């Protein structure tokens, strides 16, 4: 979805670890959020908190995407 509005650093098919805890941290690390939101996510003290923050901030970011201008020419 983000690719419609700006260039993504990570491909949609990026491979993540098969181990659930590692995969959770990797997913949080590549989530397309701003620097402060990314820091808030990665400062989580548990996997549950990490996933909750990632879901909340990602949902908020998706809601704001239509308000952003695309990176390149249309």
Walkthrough of the structure:
With 74 residues, this protein is mainly α. The protein has a domain at 20-66. It is built from three helices and no strands. The protein has helices spanning 20-30, 35-42, 47-64. Helix 2 (35-42) packs antiparallel against helix 3 (47-64). The longest helix has 18 residues, at 47-64. The radius of gyration is 13 Å and the shape is globular. It starts with 19 loop residues before the first helix and ends in a 10-residue tail after the last helix. The mean pLDDT is 78.
Keywords:
50% helix, globular
Break the fold down into its secondary structure elements and pairings.
Layout: H1 20-30, H2 35-42, H3 47-64
Helix pairs in contact: 1-3, 2-3
Radius of gyration: 13 Å
Describe the main β-sheet briefly. none
- In terms of per-residue confidence, which ranges show pLDDT below 50 for 5 or more consecutive residues? none
Rounded average pLDDT: 78
Structural class: mainly alpha
Shape: globular
State the separation between the terminal residues, measured CA to CA: 16 Å
Helix and strand pattern: HHH
Overall helicity: 40-55%
Tally of individual helices: 3
Number of strands: 0
